[in-house]
Write a structure and sequence with these properties.
This protein is an alpha+beta fold. The chain has helices at about 70-80, 110-115, 150-155, 170-175, 175-185, 190-215, 220-240, 245-255, 260-275, 290-300, 305-335, 340-360, 365-385, 385-430, 475, 480-495, 515-525, 540-545, 570-585, 590-610; strands at about 5, 35-45, 50-55, 60-65, 95-105, 125-135, 140-145, 145-150, 160-165, 440-445, 455-465, 470-475, 500-505, 530-535, 550-555, 560-570.
C-alpha cells in the first residue's frame, strides 16, 4: 500500500502495459470477494493538487489535521461514482479530475452494464473510471476508455459504492431503501416470494387495464373490430399465397410475350443445331453445332498432342451447345399462348394488387398483406367486447387479484416477522456505538385494499434517540453522527450479504470517545472482512484498527500561492506518531506514543480473536 504525491502536472495515465487478460477472478473465501478499488487519483479538487493512492483490501483510515482536506478523499470518491459536481471545489487551474481503477470478479454484474456502455477492461483486467469537472460546472465521465453519460456511472455506483457520512445519508433516508433492507434481511425465500408477488401484480394490472379499456371504449373498439373483420374476410376470400404477386408478374410477362419468346428461342436453337425438323429448307447457314463438329474432326485427326487436347475441348463445347438447344426446345414446348389463361392471370394479378394497395406498406407486396392479416387476428382478440369475452377477462382479472392478495399478505407477514429481529440486531450494534439508549424499530403499515408494485406495506425505519422520546423516522430522529452510526450498525448486520464492494464512512465517530470509539473501530474492521472500507476519522481508537493508514497533510505551496494537500501512507513508527498526535496533539509525546502502541496492540488482539 503506497500513497505518493505527483510532482508534475502532466497527465499520468493509470493504464499499465501488460498482456491482455480477462477480468480479474474473485479472490478466495475470506478476501474482498466482491471487488475493490485498487487505485485512486485526485487532481485539482479542493486543497488537493495531484495525489495518487494505491488502495489495499480491508479497512483504510484517513486521518489528518482539521482543514487538511480529508473530506476531499470522500468527495473524490463520490464524484468518481457519479455524484453531483460542485464547481466550487475546483482549484484555480480550472479543472478537477478523479480517476479510479476497479478490480472486479469476472461474474460481477458491473461488467455486463459496462459492456452495454461500450467499455472494455484494461490490459490487466481492471475497469477504469474517470470524471472531470470544470470551474464552470461542466462535467464529463469515462468508463473503460469510453465517454459515457454521468448517469451510467451513477447507475453502476448503486452496486459498487455506498457512502455514509453526515451529509450523505440518502440510502438510509429513503423509505424504499429501508424496505429493501428489511426484505434482504428476511432471507432468500422471502425475496423469491416477493418476486412472485411482483409478477402477479404486473399481470393483474395488465388484465385490469385491458378490461377497463374495453368497457370504457366498447363502441370505438367494436367499430375497430368490424374494420378488422371486414379486411380479414376480404383477404381470406382472395386467399393470397406467399410470393404469389411475383409469380403472377412472371407468368403475365411470359403469356403476353409468348410469340416473341417462341421466335427468339427457335432462332437461337436453329443457330445452335440447325433445322432438326427439316421444315425450313436447305438454304440455312451452317449451324454452330455442325461448325464445331467439323473443327473437332480436323483436330482429332492430327497426331499433335496439343491439337488432340483442343479437339477434346471442342467436343465438350458441342455437348454444351446440344444441352442448351435441348433446354430451348423444352422452353418453347412449355410456352402457353392461350389468351384465356392470360386473361385469368391478369384478373388474379389485379385482385392481388388491390389487396396489396389496401393492406400492405409500399414495397412489401403480398407478404405485407399476410402480415396485416396475422396482426389483425391478434388485435381482434384484444378488441373483443362481447359479453363472453368481457366475462372471461373479468374472471382472469379477479383470479390475478386473488393471487396478488394472497402473495401480498404472505410478503407482509414475512416483513413483520423479520422486523423485530432486524431491529434487535441493529439495536445490539448501536449499544456498542455510544447509542446504548437508542431504540430502533420498523413500522410496517399494511393496506390490503391498495396493493403496490412492492407489496401492500409502507415500511419505515424508526428511531427513538433516548428513553421517553417518541419513535420518529430515522433520518429525522437522529443527528448526523447518530445517523452515520445507525447506517454502520445496519451495514454490520448485513456484512455477509450486502453486494456493494466499497463502503465509505465519513466521520461516523463524531461526538464519540473512549470505549465506544474502540467499538466503532472493531465493527468497521469486522465489516472490512468482506468489503473494502474507507473511513475518515478523528479518533485514534478507530484508526488503530486499520489495515492501511493514510495521513492527509497540508502545507503552503509558495509557488502557486495556495495551500496544497499531500496524502501519505504511514506504518511503523510514523503510524505511532500519527496516533500520538490524534491522542494528545503532540507527535513526539512519550506518553502519547506509549498510548498509541497500546491501542495498536489492543486492536491487533481484537482483530485476531474476531
Amino acid at each position: 500500500m503506497v500513497a505518493t504525491r505527483t510532482t508534475t502536472r502532466e497527465t499520468r495515465r493509470l493504464a499499465r502495459t501488460a498482456e491482455p487478460v480477462e477480468p480479474v477472478a474473485a479472490p478466495p473465501d475470506g478476501g474482498t470477494s466482491l471487488g475493490r478499488l485498487t487505485e485512486l487519483r485526485i487532481r485539482g479538487l479542493g486543497a488537493i493538487d495531484d495525489v495518487t493512492l494505491e488502495l489495499g483490501d480491508g479497512l483504510t483510515v484517513v486521518t489528518g489535521e482539521t482543514g487538511a482536506g480529508k473530506t476531499m478523499v470522500v468527495t473524490g470518491l463520490t464524484l468518481l461514482f457519479g455524484g453531483r459536481a460542485d464547481p466550487g471545489r475546483v482549484r484555480a487551474n480550472g479543472r478537477a479530475g478523479v480517476e479510479g481503477r476497479l478490480a472486479l470478479p469476472a461474474d460481477s454484474p458491473v461488467w455486463e452494464r459496462a459492456a452495454d456502455a461500450g467499455a472494455d477492461p484494461d490490459d490487466d483486467g481492471t475497469l477504469i473510471l474517470a470524471r472531470t469537472v470544470s470551474a464552470e460546472g461542466r462535467s464529463r465521465a469515462h468508463l473503460g476508455g469510453r465517454s459515457v453519460p454521468v448517469g451510467v456511472v451513477a447507475e453502476l455506483a448503486e452496486g459498487l459504492l455506498a457512502v455514509h457520512g453526515q451529509s450523505d445519508q440518502l440510502r438510509l433516508s429513503r423509505p424504499a431503501e429501508q424496505r429493501r433492507a428489511l426484505d434482504r434481511y428476511a432471507g432468500t425465500a422471502h425475496l423469491e416470494l416477493l418476486d412472485r408477488y411482483r409478477e402477479a401484480y404486473t399481470r393483474w394490472r395488465q388484465l385490469a387495464g385491458d378490461l377497463e379499456r374495453r368497457r370504457g371504449q366498447a363502441r370505438e373498439l367494436a367499430q375497430a373490430a368490424d374494420v378488422l373483420r371486414h379486411g380479414l374476410e376480404e383477404i381470406e376470400a382472395a386467399g393470397p399465397q406467399p410470393g404469389e404477386d411475383a409469380e403472377l408478374d412472371a407468368q403475365a410477362r411470359r403469356l403476353s410475350d409468348a410469340d416473341a419468346l417462341r421466335a427468339a428461342a427457335d432462332e437461337a436453337r436453329t443457330a445452335l443445331v440447325g433445322d432438326v425438323t427439316g421444315d425450313l429448307g436447305e438454304d440455312l447457314p451452317q449451324d454452330a453445332s455442325a461448325a464445331l463438329a467439323i473443327a473437332e474432326r480436323a483436330l482429332a485427326a492430327s497426331d499433335d498432342p496439343t491439337l488432340v487436347m483442343l479437339a477434346q475441348d471442342l467436343n465438350d463445347a458441342i455437348a454444351v451447345v446440344s444441352d442448351v438447344a435441348g433446354q430451348l426446345a423444352s422452353y418453347v414446348a412449355d410456352l402457353d399462348a392461350d389468351p384465356a389463361r392470360l386473361a385469368e392471370v391478369m384478373d388474379r394479378r389485379a385482385a392481388i394488387t388491390a389487396l396489396v394497395r389496401k393492406y400492405a406498406d409500399v414495397g412489401d407486396g403480398v407478404d405485407g398483406v399476410l402480415a396485416w392479416a396475422e396482426d389483425a387476428r391478434r388485435r381482434l382478440d384484444e378488441l373483443d367486447v362481447s359479453d363472453e369475452a368481457l366475462e372471461a377477462l373479468e374472471a382472469a382479472r379477479d383470479a390475478a387479484r386473488a393471487e396478488v392478495d394472497d402473495l401480498g399478505a404472505r410478503v407482509s407477514a414475512g416483513r413483520r416477522a423479520a422486523a423485530d429481529g432486524f431491529a434487535a440486531e441493529v439495536g445490539r450494534e448501536l449499544a456498542g456505538l455510544a447509542l446504548k439508549s437508542a431504540r430502533v424499530s420498523f413500522s410496517v403499515e399494511s393496506d390490503p385494499d391498495a396493493p403496490g408494485p412492492e407489496g401492500i406495506d409502507e415500511v419505515a425505519l424508526l428511531m427513538a434517540a433516548h428513553p421517553g422520546a417518541p419513535p420518529r423516522p430515522v433520518h429525522k430522529g437522529a443527528s448526523g453522527g447518530e445517523l452515520s452510526r445507525v447506517m454502520l450498525a445496519i451495514e454490520v448486520v448485513f456484512a455477509g450479504a450486502d453486494p456493494v464492494p466499497v463502503m465509505v464512512f465519513d466521520e461516523v465517530d463524531a461526538g464519540v470517545g473512549g470505549q465506544a470509539a474502540g467499538e466503532i473501530g472493531r465493527r468497521l474492521a469486522r465489516l472490512a472482512r468482506r468489503h473494502q472500507v474507507v473511513v475518515v476519522t478523528h479518533l485514534a481508537q478507530v484508526a488503530a484498527f486499520a489495515d492501511t493508514h493514510l495521513v492527509v497533510d497540508k502545507s503552503p505551496d509558495t509557488g502557486a500561492g495556495v495551500t496544497a494537500t499531500d496524502i501519505r501512507a504511514v506504518d511503523g513508527e510514523d503510524r505511532v506518531r500519527e496516533l500520538a498526535r490524534m491522542l494528545s496533539g503532540l507527535t513526539d509525546s512519550d506518553t502519547g506514543q506509549a498510548h498509541a502502541r497500546e491501542l495498536l496492540a489492543v486492536a491487533a488482539t481484537a482483530r485476531a480473536a474476531a
